[in-house]
Specification:
Layout (H helix, E strand, L loop, with lengths): L13 H10 L6 H11 L11 E5 L1 H4 L2 H7 L4 E6 L2 H10 L7 H5 L4 E4 L9 E7 L8 H11 E12 L5 H10 L11 H10 L2 E14 L3 H11 L14 H13 L6 E13 L14 H10 L5
Parallel strand pairs: 1-2, 1-4, 2-3, 4-5
Antiparallel strand pairs: 5-7, 6-7
Length: 300
């Protein structure tokens, strides 16, 4: 019986994702750091002390110091989506010439996804707040599965579908198109993990509500989280008049401070052991079969 297919990925504009990789700020968003701290509280479930850790899309994940503190003896490799992002992060994290870390080789390695060494599989793969950028989540999970060693452990977080629900309602009411990419439900993510070769996936979620002193401050922080990669987004440039209308609508929709709710999904799973391949056909000689019958070993 064929294995069930994975849920279809939600539509996302690959060109917009690539553009975000080029323009994303060098410092991670505050929300990413907060989610990283919350996810680090869950590391107690990892009983095996990892020796090789992959910090996936490390520059925007705000997790490197947390991982270093948790696993001071581990080799931590920062993985970036592109060679350009890897080079930029490597330069940003390079210790000054007078630092002991620069000459002791203590700096973490930085590679792009294509530059991972398959001969050094990871014990722990950590991916904070990046899976919602994957054009094909199952393909991304399969890439994680290949990067992990036997019994390797995966921990990740991402946005869920209730994220920015208030902003979507405002845009829909005014016919402005979708303001952000549609995010995948945690149950579908769990099914995708199984399809990608992971075992015992555990999914969880929580809501975080952020408020700002003004709509302008809110928009400024939202820009640090990414850009609109929805294929049906407004195709042209917005005008200053439209932005003024957006700011008025955001202010009018809030009793005090403008606020937005974010659904944060957490997931973890083990790399499933490889399955033994069963041949389509098994041949037993007539002499062996007669021997099995005489010894009583041949049974229905």
């Amino acid at each position: 019986m064929p294995a069930p297919s994975a849920p279809a990925p939600l539509a996302i504009d690959a060109a917009a994702v690539s553009a975000w990789h080029r323009i994303a700020p060098s410092s991670p968003a505050w929300l990413h750091g907060e989610v990283a701290r919350r996810m680090a509280d869950r590391l107690a479930i990892v009983r095996k002390q990892p020796q090789q850790v992959l910090d996936w899309w490390s520059g925007q994940g705000a997790s490197i110091e947390l991982l270093r503190a948790q696993y001071p003896q581990a080799s931590i490799v920062a993985v970036e989506p592109t060679a350009a992002r890897a080079a930029s992060l490597s330069q940003a994290r390079r210790a000054p010439w007078w630092s002991l870390a620069r000459w002791s080789g203590a700096a973490a390695a930085v590679v792009d996804e294509a530059g991972l060494d398959p001969a050094r599989p990871a014990d722990l793969l950590w991916a904070n707040m990046m899976l919602h950028w994957a054009v094909d989540p199952v393909e991304q999970m399969q890439r994680w599965q290949r990067a992990l060693g036997a019994d390797g452990f995966l921990m990740f977080s991402c946005f869920g579908p209730d994220t920015l629900r208030e902003l979507r309602a405002l845009y829909a009411e005014r016919g402005w198109g979708p303001p952000n990419t549609a995010f995948t439900d945690m149950h579908d993510l769990g099914d995708m993990l199984v399809h990608a070769g992971f075992a015992d996936p555990v999914m969880d979620m929580e809501y975080l509500t952020l408020s700002w002193e003004s709509p302008a401050a809110m928009l400024g922080e939202l820009r640090t989280l990414g850009r609109n990669a929805h294929p049906a987004r407004y195709p042209g440039l917005r005008t200053p008049a439209w932005k003024a209308e957006l700011l008025r609508a955001l202010q009018a929709g809030s009793e005090e401070r403008p606020a937005m709710r974010f659904e944060i999904i957490y997931g973890h799973a083990f790399k499933a052991p490889p399955r033994a391949k069963v041949g389509e056909e098994t041949r037993v000689s007539l002499a062996d079969m007669r021997s099995m019958v005489r010894s009583g070993k041949a049974r229905d």
